[in-house]
Structures are given as C-alpha cells and as structure tokens.
UniProtKB/TrEMBL annotation:
Gene3D superfamilies: 3.40.50.360
Pfam families per record: FMN_red
Domain NADPH-dependent FMN reductase-like: 1-145
Protein name as annotated: FMN reductase
InterPro entries named in the record: Flavoprotein-like_sf, FMN_Rdtase-like_dom, NAD(P)H-dep_FMN_reductase
Keywords, comma-separated and alphabetical: Flavoprotein, FMN, Oxidoreductase
SUPFAM superfamilies: Flavoproteins
Domain of life: Bacteria
Coiled-coil boundaries: none
GO molecular function: oxidoreductase activity
Length: 179
C-alpha cells in the first residue's frame, strides 16, 4: 500500500514541510505503508491541453504515473489569491478521471490569513467529489504563524491535527481495502 504526498506548488517550502509531516506520521505509526513525496517544483510539467493523459511524455508522464499508481493521497497547497495553486489545478486536469476513483485523500493547506482554510471546503473537496474520491473528515490548515523562522511547524494543536489526519487516511484506506 502506497500513500503519495503531493506538494502542489513550485515556490516556497511550507507546503512541502506540511505534507512531509503527515507522511512522517503515517510512516511512524504504519511502517508497512510506503510513503513518497511528490514535490511538483522538482518536475517540469506541461500545461494540460486536452490530449489523452497517456500521450504526455517526460516529467509530465512521470507525474501522471506516480499519481495514478498510488493507493491514497495527502494533497497540499498553499493558498494564493484565495485559491489553490495553478500548478495543483493543472495536475488535476492532467490526470485521468479514473485515477482517483474511490481512493482516499487528505488535505493540508498553508496560507497567510486565517480565512483561507475555506479553500479546502469550497475548492479541494468539490474537486475530490468530481473524481469520486473519498475525503478524510479532517484536514489541516496551517497559518504562517504556526511555523517558526526555520519553517518548522511548532504549533502543538497543528501537530496534533496532523497526527489525526494521518490516522484518518490510513484508517479509511485500510477499511476500503478490506471490502
């Protein structure tokens, strides 16, 4: 069983830190689960142009394959202009609709205002619904204030929520695998 953490940005590091923290929590409590971080800034991904996903090559094909082959996901995005990043939206546009069907997703988001958590509710969850994916009940929104100057998450409540999210996605995935 493999969980893919997706850092859905090509700038900054806080979202990658947040996604990695969830993956670390999963690995610590379930060492049998394979974890991988897909940091989109490490890939040169083409813009979606409507062609069949299998027609893409290079980094774009690698990323599509990584997403398609994972069993469940931790998806992270910073919030820019009250929305998910264009890079993450492009990824959702690139992957086949069937790639996320009946797979579990957990969300983390980072941002500079306390109201931006609503992006998870109003944008990410509906996208998951389109793909007919299962969404963990919890998600984690991390404000800039929850990080220290070394870009480490230091807020104990946030760290607790990360643990809860990790547990939920694993629980859901394990129960779905039983059926």
């Amino acid at each position: 069983m493999k969980v893919l953490g997706i850092s859905g940005t090509i700038v900054g590091s806080k979202t990658g830190v947040a996604v990695s923290k969830v993956l670390e929590a999963i690995k610590r409590t379930h060492p049998e689960i394979e974890t991988e971080l897909l940091d989109l800034k490490q890939y040169d991904i083409q813009f979606c142009d409507g062609r069949d996903p299998s027609a893409y090559t290079g980094d774009t094909k690698i990323v599509i394959d990584k997403v398609t082959n994972a069993d469940f996901y931790i998806i992270g995005t910073p919030i820019f202009q009250s929305s998910l990043t264009g890079v993450l939206k492009n990824l959702f546009d690139l992957i086949p609709v069937s790639a996320l069907y009946e797979k579990v997703m957990g969300f983390v988001a980072t941002g500079g205002t306390y109201q931006h958590y609503l992006v998870v509710e109003n944008q990410l969850k509906p996208i998951a619904g389109f793909f007919r994916a299962y969404v963990a009940p919890s998600y984690v929104y991390i404000h800039d204030d929850h990080f220290n100057s070394a870009k480490e998450i230091v807020d104990s409540d946030i760290l607790s929520r990360i643990e809860r999210l990790a547990g939920e996605v694993v629980f859901m995935q394990q129960r779905l695998k039983q059926s």
